[in-house]
Design a protein that fits this description.
The protein is about 10% helix and about 45% strand. It is mostly beta strands and about 650 residues long.
Length: about 650
């Protein structure tokens, strides 16, 4: 019995000690209760994440919005692919957003989001993202979290080294991955070398509205331009592009485009380009490309086909472009927050190459050249070299910065993130990823002011990280805490599509500007119906236009007769709600389109072409109230040659 009480006392004392440790926050070594990874990513119910993360959807064509550190998915913003949930590309208002010079394109491959900046710091106004397959750049409003503008890029193919912004969002820049005939024409693929070209596109952004305009293109040799980043700080006014396939191979590139010991980073002086334009040293080239703009005033998109672009030929304009040799098949091309260091990640190189902007300028001044490529000077490798990170890992891809003097690089083959110090080039930490990491993101890591708290690694292979879902599994991402000397993995979370890059920003910068609803009195949609009394049905030949409203919990009108087989029926539906988070949906049986999901104060349109006689129901698709199930209506469809009078009603009136 005495032994029992002794043991009980020991357990009580131990429990009390643990309680004290927990209450006092533990210590830096133990701290299982205070410092656990689960606790660090936990966001209590009703509380907000500290950061937004905008993660590209890759082959989904969209842009996903997550919270950090929780890893919670908030929204998938439709951009380049149709989205039945939000009627993107299905309703009449957004179909023009997916128009191109090739016609309506319902899909694309979205890669690299970048957030607008002011003075080199994230300002949270817009996110830009590129379409890789049919070259385009989109601008997404961070007030509405909706795509407002998409511009097609002519003279481009594989729009990969995109869409990165200069430090005052003067330009969003897009580079082509594939060399092509410029202008496009019928020619033998075997004639690639010396005849195929590439274009680097500079898209001007209006500082107030964000409206984009393709200002000019720089005509380049037909190499593959893989990734890019802007100069910042001391290097503002320059843009840097990694290249591979300087061999100009056109078949079996995994072998034939890996022959040269070094490829290049192309340094483009875009401020010099503006001087050349003022001097008239450009040609206006015929080009056909779509420019699509969505208006929040009339909730409708328009598509305009542009017809020309200004082109500067880099081979004929000294001082516009220089090549910096970089081993070997560089992929990432990343610039540190000061603008001094340009990191070239050669996929096949044993070390990381870091160029110095100051040394580059000096080499240009002293004409320290090692020949030229198609009239563009090649700077001597040693003349621009700041240093090398030796034996960092296998398969380097991308680098981000924490603003504290450290860089973080992903290694695809050795499947890890490696932390190294700028200036000394020494590796100070490494952590595994799961598996085969591609891109990484530090919020603000692509700016003059990174927020060095978290790092997100986006992996290409998932394997055993989650419950199996058949042959296709979701993509895998990991969240790391980088606030201390050593990185700590906190969280695994699945992602939408195949992320290629992400952009993060403190939530406080964005959420205070988020729109709650659209004011009904400001709705300028040509078919807006702003009161139930204004609802009507109008016939124009075999076209029928239904002016309809929706509000908890009914449509007006909700009974319509006089529609005939063969009619083309336009449902113009306005959500009369003026409260936050009260959308309504509508779906019509047999409609060859998606539902509409309409935000408060908005008007949207879908088309229904009835093929069968009968009485056909429609209903609200978004659960809006306790009487949601009662939110429904009917359309009577009569034979093609019938004389049934067009009529509509609400409550029999």
């Amino acid at each position: 019995m005495k032994f029992y009480f002794k043991m009980l006392n020991v357990l009580v004392i131990a429990a009390f000690s643990l309680t004290l440790v927990a209450c006092n926050g533990g210590n830096s070594k133990g701290g299982a209760l205070k410092n656990s990874a689960a606790e660090k990513v936990f966001v209590a119910p009703g509380k907000y994440d500290a950061y937004y993360a905008f993660i590209s959807g890759g082959f989904s064509g969209q842009l996903s919005v997550y919270g950090l550190p929780s890893g919670r998915l908030f929204k998938v913003i439709p951009v380049f692919s149709v989205d039945a949930e939000k009627a993107w590309g299905f309703n009449e208002e957004t179909k023009p957003m997916l128009q191109t010079s090739h016609g309506f394109i319902p899909w694309d491959d979205s890669h690299h989001p970048d957030i607008s900046q002011t003075n080199g710091e994230l300002d949270g106004r817009w996110v830009f993202i590129n379409a890789n397959n049919t070259p385009r750049i989109a601008r997404i409003s961070l007030e509405t979290f909706e795509t407002e503008e998409i511009i097609e890029i002519p003279n481009s193919a594989g729009n990969h080294s995109s869409s990165f912004v200069t430090e005052n969002t003067e330009y969003v820049v897009a580079g082509t991955r594939f060399g092509v005939p410029i202008p496009q024409r019928d020619m033998s693929i075997k004639d690639y070398k010396g005849n195929f070209k590439a274009a680097l596109s500079f898209i001007k952004v209006d500082p107030k509205t964000g409206h984009m305009n393709l200002d000019f293109q720089v005509l380049m040799p037909g190499f593959d331009y893989d990734l890019s980043h802007p100069g910042r700080g001391k290097s503002h006014g320059w843009f840097f592009f990694s290249t591979y396939n300087t061999e100009e191979a056109h078949t079996l590139l995994e072998v034939n485009a890996s022959q040269n010991d070094k490829d290049y980073i192309a340094a483009v002086n875009w401020k010099k380009a503006l001087e050349f334009i003022k001097q008239g040293k450009y040609q206006t080239m015929p080009a056909r490309y779509a420019h699509n703009v969505y208006s929040d005033e009339n909730h409708t998109a328009t598509s305009t086909m542009e017809k020309s672009v200004r082109v500067l030929d880099a081979s004929k304009l000294p001082g516009l472009v220089y090549f910096m040799p970089t081993p070997k098949s560089p992929h990432g091309c990343d610039v540190d927050p000061t603008g001094e260091y340009i990191v070239g990640s050669g996929k096949l190189a044993a070390a990381l190459t870091v160029h110095s902007f100051s040394k580059m300028l000096k080499a240009i001044e002293n004409k320290e050249f090692d020949g030229e490529a198609y009239g563009i000077p090649i700077l001597k490798f040693e003349s621009t070299l700041a240093g090398t990170v030796e034996q960092p890992g296998l398969g380097p891809l991308h680098t981000e910065f924490d603003g504290k003097g450290y860089a973080y690089t992903t290694f695809f083959i050795s499947s890890e993130v490696v932390k190294w110090k700028l200036g000394t080039w020494e590796v100070v930490d490494r952590k595994p990823t799961y598996y085969s990491v591609g891109h990484l993101m530090i919020p603000g890591g692509n700016s003059r002011k990174p927020f060095g708290k978290y790092l997100v690694a986006m992996n290409k292979i998932t394997k055993d990280r989650y419950l199996p879902t058949g042959p296709e599994v979701c993509q895998s991402a990991q969240l790391y805490d980088i606030s201390g000397d050593k990185m700590e993995m906190l969280l695994d979370f699945p992602t939408v599509g195949e992320p290629h890059y992400a952009a993060g920003i403190p939530a406080e910068i964005v959420k205070k500007h988020s729109k709650k609803f659209f004011k009904l009195e400001e709705n300028k949609h040509p078919y807006a119906t702003k009161s139930e009394d204004a609802g009507k049905v109008v016939r124009k030949g075999n076209e029928v236009h239904i002016y309809m409203t929706m509000i908890r919990s009914h449509f007006s009108p909700d009974n319509i007769e006089g529609i005939k087989v063969g009619d083309k029926v336009y449902f113009h539906v306005t959500n009369l709600e003026q409260d936050y988070d009260v959308p309504h949906g509508i779906a019509m049986i047999g409609a060859r389109t998606s539902e509409l999901l309409i935000m408060p104060g908005q008007t949207e349109t879908f088309v229904w072409e009835p093929k069968q006689v009968g009485v056909w129901p429609f209903y609200c698709t978004d659960f809006c109230s306790a009487l949601h199930q009662e939110m429904q209506g009917y359309v009577r469809v009569s034979p093609r040659n019938s004389n049934v009078k067009l009529s509509w009603s609400l409550d029999g009136e």
